[in-house]
Amino acid sequence: EAQVTQNPRYLITVTGKKLTVTCSQNMNHEYMSWYRQDPGLGLRQIYYSMNVEVTDKGDVPEGYKVSRKEKRNFPLILESPSPNQTSLYFCASRDRDGANVLTFGAGSRLTVL
Amino acid sequence: DAKTTQPNSMESNEEEPVHLPCNHSTISGTDYIHWYRQLPSQGPEYVIHGLTSNVNNRMASLAIAEDRKSSTLILHRATLRDAAVYYCILRDVWGGADGLTFGKGTHLIIQP
N or C end: fewer C-beta atoms under 10 angstroms in chain B? Predict the structure, then answer.
């Protein structure tokens, strides 16, 4: 089944403890991205990657890092999480085409205490 | 990307058609109209997209006004599983790097 897989789905952590949210897609998509969703603010893009070794900042990149060493994986790294990064995170991917149809993962709910 | 305007919420009855409107008066000639939906506790899910002509797929139909300044997502026979937030989004066909910009969408409530 074509899908985007995120892990963990739920995580509670403490301020300053580094964490990584993994994202993997099995559709051979070139483009991958990370979004966060907060009440009243909708979905906002954090980082995106057009291809392997190519990453760019989205609308809200502060406090996050990403890497794209392989086509299928696009991990989101929080080096020193803070409570304002408590949110619902979504990874998405799409193929190279003009229609820009995204496939989303199921989400990772992160709480930073 | 050009802006879209949708009602905050709509209510409909099960097994009846639902028409979800979207206004996009500043749409450009190369903007695709996309619809996604987000069911409770799930990630957004692609529904349908179109450029100029009306489109149909297994999930829904998309009716695009002749001047393209508005569109309507049509669910022909709503079920309780269609209760979700529906997002209308414009995306330039030549746009490259960035993703889709999601607004607040329309919260669709289905009454049994």
Answer: C
Percent of chain B with pLDDT over 90: 75
- pLDDT for A43-93, tens place per residue? 899 999 989 999 999 989 999 999 999 999 999 999 999 999 999 999 999
| Interface-testing mutation among B8, B33, B100, with chain A (most A C-beta atoms within 10 A) | B100
DSSP state for residue B5 in the 8-state scheme: B
Could you give the strand order of the β-sheet that contains B31-38, starting from the edge strand earlier in sequence? B9-13, B106-111, B84-92, B31-38, B45-50
The answer to whether residues A15 and A23 touch, using CB atoms and an 8 Å cutoff, is: no
Give the integer Cα–Cα distance in Å for B80 and A89: 26
**Are B104 and A42 in contact (CB < 8 Å)?**
yes
Determine the Cα–Cα distance for residues B49 and B34; give it in Å rounded to an integer.
4
Nearest by CB to A90, which of B43, B93, B97?
B43
Kindly tell me the sign of the dihedral angle through the C-alpha atoms of A51, A71, A60, A64.
negative
Cis peptide bond prior to B21, omega within 30° of 0 = no
